[in-house]
Amino acid sequence: MDWRRHDTARAHFIASSDEPGLRLHLRAHEDDPARPPVLFVHGATYASRLYDIPHPGASWLKAAAAAGFAAYALDIRGYGRSRSAAMAAATGPYARATEAIRDIDDAMRWLAARHGRRALPLVGGSWGSITTALYTATLGAGRVARLVLYAPIFAAPNPGWHALLADPSDPARLNPAFGACRWVTEAGTRERWDAEIPEGADWRDEAVLQALFLSSLADDPLAAQQSPPAFRAPNGTFCDLWQAFNGRPLYDPGAIRCPVQLLRGGADPTSTRADALALFDALGSEERQYVEIANGAHFVSAERQAPAVFAAANSFLAG
Fold first, then answer.
1. pLDDT tens digit string along 33-74?
2. Does residue 282 lie within any of the structural domains?
3. Taking the CA atoms of the chain, what radius of gyration do you get in angstroms?
4. Are 107 and 115 in contact (CB under 8 A)?
5. CB neighbours of 99 closer than 8 A, spacing ≥ 6?
6. Considering the entire predicted model, what is its pTM?
7. How far from chain centre, in Å, is Cα 295?
8. Is residue 104, in this structure, part of any structural domain at all?
């Protein structure tokens, strides 16, 4: 199936208030200004494409639009179509959470003005759960109406991720070899996703993986020059994940007061149940939910249980 037939989102570009020359990309479905908006923020590797996989039934943005929202997904600086000249010049990991929240703020302010809203709902997944929660607790206090933290990561030791991120010669520190960004191949995509799914579980559609990877390649003008083809993802996220997976929180959950939903796949080894429940207990929100989707892992929103993810989030976002 040709993924391009299902790639129907509108593109909006807004100027960054933080990085000169950067134009932040927003992917949108049913973006009528009269509709209530919702903003999605991606995780460490896959940009806004993860929320708008061009395959039937795989787009969370389309599901949110069908539920009545004007659905938008942001590419954080250096990801997807938010192309950054600064990333090319950077010598160390680019785009940390403290920078990402400024991109989120630019998008939230633009959407609030476009749709005539003071506050609007926000969804953040994986590393995006860190950036959106940090935003809600600090810069965005009062601007977030409702918050969904999908595949949330907070502050719990995770030996598997520690081994992936640590310096081989000194496990007590982050690997200093990480540059500004990395190249993501199809083999790397498959290996990462497979590692998140229990052995023998048939939870993923191969066509969805292909649509996600091929559309991600199309968003990076340098992808075709690589052998094998690959797209870029910034490495600043690794600095943040290193802190979280060593039990050091990057934000104060008690400072979050808006309604919050924690939403995760029941078998997720990256966003663990213990970490998510610790976050749930620490939140300052009077209204909060913990939702776990059985037979799903870290990418459950792109697996066979995706409709359950979409339904749970849409119900909460609608209030």
1. 999 999 999 999 999 999 999 999 999 999 999 999 999 999
2. yes
3. 18
4. no
5. 18, 19, 77, 236
6. 0.98
7. 21
8. yes
